[in-house]
Amino acid sequence: GMDLEKVPFRVTVVRKSKDIYYMLISHHHILYDGWSNSLLINRFYEIYSALINDKEITVSKQTDASTYFDYLKNYSVENSNAYWKDYLKNYHAFSLTKILPEDVENSVNIEKKLFRKEESETIKRFCKHNGITPAALLFAVLGLCLQKSLNCTDIMIGTTVSGRNLPIRDIDQMVGLFIQTIPLRFQNYTEKSFLNFVRQVNIDIINSSGNEIYSTADIKRYLGVSAEKELFEVIAVAENYPIDTRKLSSQEDFQIQYHMSYDKKSAAPLCVEFRIFKEIEVYFKYQKNKGASG
């Protein structure tokens, strides 16, 4: 891990050959989120490209972080709490114990699924044709898998959202930690066609926008989850940050290849990361030593 008091942010440049360098950026997760990382990479490209092409570097004024904290200070969670209590009405927590492998006690395991370019494009075309997002489709498939595996028609997971929907000027261009983890519920697939099931997930994601700031403690009490337990057994995140990969490799004399890696530590017994870029990648991180909710 990284010590916030010593080196919370570190940049290391490694020369591999005459024309190839690796720049390794390491930071404590409390500093900024993945969306911010893409902003920093895009900005790095713009400044470096200007320098090597002898062009003027432009610096735009950014919204101060204090604006965000002032908004949070004055925000009332009562309406959001009411929304989530209605959304989670009659929900009962589940446990992943019976579907996680027995041989992963006290360890974190990572498995990866990579969709080929053609498969990724097919998924994106299907979503565009039906007016849904790739994230909604992938979340729905995950929810359906959990329903089938647990033999349960009512499943709730946590989904990590960017937090960039707040009414703050240029918040989508601010660097910081804005992400929130909110509930997403899957109910009664057998009563719907698969497409209608996905559309309902898409609608739920849209409706939850504006209710991303809420009291976890209040929701735990409402669901009967003890304070020391985690609210979510499963956390899913769709990573589709605004990084312009085409621009990063557009110049013949200067190209950047962008790679992401994360600490293996898992925030829940099962974490699923959907990386939705040119190709779609799915990462499953699971462990069994986390306590079940309830």
Fold and architecture overview:
The protein is an alpha/beta fold and 294 residues long. The protein is built from 8 helices and 8 strands. The protein has helices at residues 34-52, 65-74, 78-87, 117-130, 134-150, 194-208, 216-223, 245-248, and strands spanning 9-15, 21-27, 109-114, 154-161, 180-187, 234-239, 270-276, 280-286. Strands 3-8-7-6-4-5 form a 6-stranded mixed sheet. The chain has a two-stranded antiparallel ribbon with strand order 1-2. Helix 8 links the parallel strand 6 (234-239) and strand 7 (270-276). Helix 5 (134-150) packs across helix 6 (194-208).
Query: Which geometry do the CA atoms define?
Result: globular
Count every beta strand, where a strand is a DSSP E run of 2 or more residues.
8
Order of helices and strands: EEHHHEHHEEHHEHEE
- Indicate the low-confidence ranges by residue numbers: 290-294
Structural class, by secondary structure, is alpha/beta
Mean pLDDT, rounded to whole units?
85
Largest sheet: 6 strands, mixed
Cα separation of the termini: 30 Å
Radius of gyration: 21 Å
- Helical fraction equals 25-40%
Strand order, biggest sheet? 3-8-7-6-4-5
Total helices: the number is: 8
**Percentage of β-strand residues:** 15-25%
